[in-house]
Amino acid sequence: MNYVVWGNGSVSARLWNAIRSDDWAIPHVGLSSLGEIVVWARPDEFPPRNMQTSKGLRALGYNVRIGV
Question: The organism sits in which domain of life (predicted)?
Fold first, then answer.
């Protein structure tokens, strides 16, 4: 988990390794779960976004796309 969140290289490469590599894969943990962990651990770099947060941002007056 530390590798995925804080390791060297791009987050996308680490996420890919974590679901495809025998060295880094975590049984029963998929891409979506790992992505959520990254955004909640590093919100300044990867703000968490889903349908509910997008609707909340829209309600606060931000011009965000919903359901893209």
Answer: Bacteria
